[in-house]
Amino acid sequence: MKDIKILISSLLIICSFFLWYIFAQTQESLSTSKNSQEKTYINVVSKGKKILLDSDNPDVILLLNGQETASGSIVIE
């Protein structure tokens, strides 16, 4: 009788671990799909050889000729 209780409790612990893992994977996939739907807009203004980049989001990084640029003005020569 004592062995049956240990067996049942062990099975319940193993099942709860797998249920937790499946739940965590589902939550991760939902949050990833939610984040991928967000759009980031950057205002680019060109005046001759000067380009003005305006971005409110600090997470946006632009690459211009291999150099990182967050926002500001760039003079192309």
Kindly provide the radius of gyration, computed on alpha-carbon positions and rounded to a whole number of angstroms: 26 Å
Q: Shape from CA axes?
A: rod-shaped
Number of helices: 1
Number of β-strand runs: 5
Describe the structure.
The chain has one helix spanning 2-36, and strands spanning 43-47, 50-54, 62-64, 67-69, 72-75. The chain is α+β, with helices and mostly antiparallel strands. The protein has a three-stranded antiparallel β-sheet, with no helix packed on it. β3 (62-64) and β4 (67-69) form a beta hairpin. The N and C termini lie far apart (85 Å).
List keywords for this structure.
two-stranded antiparallel ribbon, three-stranded antiparallel beta sheet, alpha+beta, single chain, 45% helix, 77 residues
Q: How would you sum up this structure in a few lines?
A:
45% of the residues lie in helices and 26% in strands. The chain has one helix spanning 2-36, and strands at residues 43-47, 50-54, 62-64, 67-69, 72-75.
